[in-house]
Amino acid sequence: MRPGMIQAIEESNDLNSTSNIAALRCSKLTKRYNDVTAVDGIDLEVRNGECFGLLGPNGAGKTTTVEILEGLTPADGGLVEILGQSWGAGNDHMLRQRLGVQLQETQLADKLTVEETVRLFRSFYTRGHSVDEVIGLVELEEKRSARVGKLSGGQKQRLAVACALVSDPDILFLDEPTTGLDPQARLKLWGIVEHFGKSGGTTLLTTHYMEEATRLCDRVAIMDHGKVIALGTPAELIESLEADQIVELTTRGELESSTFERLAGVRAVRKKESVLSLTVSDIGAALPALLGEITRQKAELVSLTTHQATLEDVFVSMTGRMLRDG
């Protein structure tokens, strides 16, 4: 047996022995671009077999963090471990064989067919799914002979994910995989991610769709301005609001919003433009009280809506702005 083959097998065995080691770990990770700190000393650990979400608005540092973990961008400071190994320690090729990567903007050749594209990506790896298996997995059988340039947005995204899955990776990186997709296309991609997780794979997902994170992720980290500002399961983060409902209302006539903070059942109050938003722990006590306060202030109620507290509300409560404000 050639020495190179022996080394490759030893490296593979080293990586296979990491089942009890976190799939991904970074400590005090930092990345700067001129005078902008894109990633500001974050600590993260992604466990084997979990779907972990990085959430936050555009510019929060999500993509930069993921590109560092993928080995595509060098960090300016901190430590990174992938499957118990560090980039640049001699295992880079073996590590890349274990990762599947879907970039935020995957540029595929328009003139190639779906089958040719998947076959090309399959040729990059020493192990993996067959071309037929991965095309079936992403439900593109009817499009296997179609050229990439003729696919819809959702079909192109599924093809990009197919290219990431073709190596049968241990870790799947998905960067904003459903941005711009219609609800049906988004649901199809969610199903692919869920299937990968059920097979034991680890997923790191970036998104600014909170409903996506709630559906797919075992744990999430919310990022803002290069920092992790919250970390936990979706349920834990929502529970941290100590609220069952969010009440949003508009009125004719100005309201003194600070008086609502003293009402029964109200945990927090936020006003943006004409909308007053109240974080409510007891809707039964809060609703009559806030209607009475509107009357007392001689304003006229125009609209009132309520919804269950979400991850979006966690972000608003921590930053004072909506997720999509950027």
Q: What's the structural blueprint in terms of helices and strands?
A:
Layout: H1 3-16, E1 24-33, E2 36-46, E3 51-55, H2 62-69, E4 77-82, H3 92-97, E5 99-102, H4 114-122, H5 131-137, H6 153-165, E6 171-175, H7 183-198, E7 202-207, H8 210-216, E8 219-224, E9 227-232, H9 234-239, E10 245-252, E11 266-272, E12 275-280, H10 283-296, E13 300-308, H11 311-319
Parallel strand pairs: 3-7, 3-8, 5-6, 6-7
Antiparallel strand pairs: 1-2, 1-4, 8-9, 10-12, 10-13, 11-12
Helix pairs in contact: 4-5, 4-6, 6-7
- The CATH architecture of the largest domain can be given as 3-Layer(aba) Sandwich
Helical percent range?
25-40%
- The ordered H/E elements are HEEEHEHEHHHEHEHEEHEEEHEH
Span between N and C termini?
56 Å
Residue stretches low in confidence (pLDDT < 50, at least 5 long) are 1-19
Q: In CATH terms, what is the fold-level topology of the largest domain?
A: Rossmann fold
CATH uppermost class of the largest domain: Alpha Beta
Structure characteristics:
single chain, 326 residues, alpha/beta, 2 domains, four-stranded antiparallel sheet, 13 strands, 33% helix
Give a verbal description of the structure:
With 326 residues, the chain is an alpha/beta fold. It has two domains: 3-237, P-loop containing nucleotide triphosphate hydrolases (Rossmann fold, 3-Layer(aba) Sandwich); 242-308, 2-Layer Sandwich (Alpha-Beta Plaits), CATH 3.30.70. It contains eleven helices and 13 strands. It has helices at 3-16, 62-69, 92-97, 114-122, 131-137, 153-165, 183-198, 210-216, 234-239, 283-296, 311-319, and strands at residues 24-33, 36-46, 51-55, 77-82, 99-102, 171-175, 202-207, 219-224, 227-232, 245-252, 266-272, 275-280, 300-308. The strands form three sheets. A six-stranded mixed β-sheet has the order 5-6-7-3-8-9, with helices on both faces. The chain has a four-stranded antiparallel β-sheet with strand order 11-12-10-13, with helices on one face. A three-stranded antiparallel β-sheet has the order 2-1-4, with helices on one face. Helix 4 (114-122) crosses helix 5 (131-137), helix 4 (114-122) packs parallel to helix 6 and helix 6 runs parallel beside helix 7. The longest helix is centred in the middle third of the chain and has 16 residues, at 183-198. The chain is elongated and about 70 Å long. The relative contact order is 0.13. Mean pLDDT is 88; it is low at 1-19.
